[in-house]
Amino acid sequence: MASMNPCPRCNIPLTLIEVEGERVLMCPNCEGVMLRKLDHVMGMSEEQLRDSAACETLFADHPNIDLTPVAPCPVCRQPMRRYIYSTDSGVAVDACATGHGIWLDDGELAQIYDYIHGEGAAPGATRQEKVTEVLRGYGRKRD
């Protein structure tokens, strides 16, 4: 189902999908997603994530999309703040300064999931500690 919210990268209408009971906006062109919260997605198993409506956004397969401009929030159109997800993940995410959610470009959801659950996870850190660290950084501007 198409929404009236435009993609911050392509400026085309976003599609409303459902991921584990949560409504998510996804771009059918660049496959970026706008999530209200990240925790519910991080609690999913890899199989659930791969079988979800968001599976297309897991693979960074749109190299021609320009990710350098400041992205406007698809909901309020205000410039989002870019920051590094957790201190050592290497993933830059865009967050609405007024709290509408987090925009993840194509492939970033998988990078964050892998960071929390996989090889990039800090030794001894639990998933909840990683998610909490991210929530503390929500909205901070990247250097």
Describe the structure.
The C terminus is likely disordered. The protein has one domain. By secondary structure, the protein is of the alpha+beta class. Helices cover 22% and strands 22% of the residues. The chain starts with a strand and ends in a 6-residue tail after the last helix. It has a 7-stranded antiparallel sheet with strand order 1-2-3-4-7-6-5, with no helix packed on it. The protein has 4 helices and 7 strands. A hairpin with a 2-residue loop joins strand 2 and strand 3.
Short description:
With 143 residues, the protein is α+β, with helices and mostly antiparallel strands. Helices cover 22% and strands 22% of the residues.
- Strand content bin: 15-25%
Radius of gyration: 14 Å
Mean pLDDT: 82
Number of domains: 1
Write out key terms for the chains shown:
single chain, 143 residues, alpha+beta, 22% helix
What is the topology?
Elements: E1 2-6, E2 13-19, E3 22-26, E4 33-35, H1 39-42, H2 46-51, E5 81-84, E6 92-95, E7 102-104, H3 108-117, H4 127-137
Antiparallel strand pairs: 1-2, 2-3, 3-4, 4-7, 5-6, 6-7
